[in-house]
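The record is kept unedited without comment:

——
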Amino acid sequence: MSAASRAPQCSNRTRSRAALLAAGAAAAALVLSACSSGGTSGGGGDTNFVLGKDGIATADKGERADAPDLSGKTVDGKQLDVGDYKGKVVVVNVWGSWCPPCRAEAPGFQKVSEDLKDQGVQFVGINTRDTSTGPALAFEKTYGVTYPSLYDPTGKLMLRFERGTLNPQAIPSTLVFDRDGKIAARSLQALSEEKLRKMIAPVLAEK
C-alpha cells in the first residue's frame, strides 16, 4: 500500500481519537457542572427570600413557606419523617457522595451538628443521585457523619419543595427550618463551617 493510500486512514484514526477525547471532556464537564451548579436562583416562584451578600437567602418570620413532607428510607434503611422534628430548628443538607464540594463541607456540618444538638438543632441530609446506598454509607463513614440522611436517588423529595425554594440542580444545598416547620434560610452552594453557623444562629435565637 502506498503512503498516499495510507494517509486517509491515519487521518481518520486521528479524527476518531480527537472525537473520543472531546466526548470525554464534555462528559467530565457535565459531571463537574452538576456538582458545582449552586447559585442564587431557585427556579422562580414567590418565596419571599431576600438574598444576602454572603449568598445566604432568608425569609422573615410570617412570610416563610411551609416545608414539604420529607419522609422515607434513610441511606441505612431506617424510616424517617422530618416532620417529627417539629419544635426543633432543622438543618437540611442536600448532598451526594460524588460531589467534591459536598465532601469539603461534610466535616464542618458534622462538627456544627454535634455542637448544637443540645440546643434543639437537628441535622438531616438528603442524599441524591447516588445509584445505590453503598457510596453514601461510605461517605458517612469517611467523614464521621452521624445524623440521618434520606435516600433520594432520583430527586423526588427535592421536587416536593415549593417552586423557587430549592434548585434540584444545585448540589450541595442547605435549608434551615424554623421551629414551626417553615423554611427560614437557604443556601444553594457549599458552606464553610463559619457560614453555616451564621445561617443557623438567627433562627435558633428566635422565640
